[in-house]
């Protein structure tokens, strides 16, 4: 056992060097994105949403379908948009001709006026309750990419977002590894990403970890407050002062252990609910504002993770609006920065000084307790990313 530990440490250090040595070839990220969900019956029209995004000076958004009204409304704007192939369509796209037809009818009519920069094939397919979906993922991704190339749009990136539940291990970050049962298809998928120089997208929610065990995980670490003791990876000696970065680096290590080092990891979803059920500890407007403010502050400072410090982490916040028709616990309907009437749920500072928002009030009530205790006295080895941090959000 004594001999095994140094060998293990050397392996992790090698992986860290293996990853960081090639980071310079990954393009520099320019802006923050936001998820524009539509599982609601009271949202503003897309043209109003475009005005809101312009006011916020956000130039990247992601939707969960190929809504024609949105794609048409966003034409001739400066908004880059990532669209999604719904999970139920994947089985049809095994056929290259069907994929070509899908691209021709859902994407091509809006180009180039609408800046469609990416297509997400499915959502959290690797961990979907329907196991049969996974066998269609890589063929669908490849067929859509080939269809785009055939039609002259090979610059549109094709990928899929995954839940953190794809990881078997996530703590410490250097121990990150994919679940063995998905390794075969994951290797095929990573091979595609490596060949096409396309990012790996992850949905990462530190909130889930805190909600599951608030007594063991310091709130400051999960929210990204500074200063806090954070954690130190015992093998790489890298220090983490927020859980999101630890989650992302765990994914980098998992990818490296599959033999790939030129794949960038991006965050397709992260956020914090402003309201929850009584058992959803930490869901409050104060904590939601703090988490998102800290994240935006780090983005504006061009921060990268400890493993990839020279690469600013690209992040898409979840979400633009509260969505009243989402199933599940109360938190699911309360991730939005804005209410459907475009008033702010809380202020994260996205408005410029010359802008007068419709509402600047911050709710003070919450259905769940909040905590303001610091974590500076917590041992760096006394808490970790629990299994609950890999929970997936409830799907519409």
Notes on the protein architecture:
With 396 residues, the protein is an alpha/beta fold. The protein has one domain (32-338): Glycosidases (TIM Barrel, Alpha-Beta Barrel), CATH 3.20.20. 30% of the residues lie in helices and 12% in strands. The strands form three sheets. It has a nine-stranded parallel β-sheet. The protein has a two-stranded antiparallel ribbon with strand order 7-8. α1 crosses α9 (243-257) and α5 (134-150) packs parallel to α6. It is globular, with a radius of gyration of 21 Å. Residues 1-7, 22-29 and 352-390 have low confidence and may be disordered.
Number of helices: 10
User: Average pLDDT, to the nearest integer?
Assistant: 86
Domain module count: 1
Helix content: 25-40%
Low-confidence stretches: 1-7, 22-29, 352-390
Distance between the termini: 48 Å
Shape: globular
Report the portion of residues in β strands: 5-15%
Number-wise, the strands total 13
CATH H-tier superfamily:
Glycosidases
Secondary-structure element series: HEHEHEHEHEEEEHEHHEEHEHE
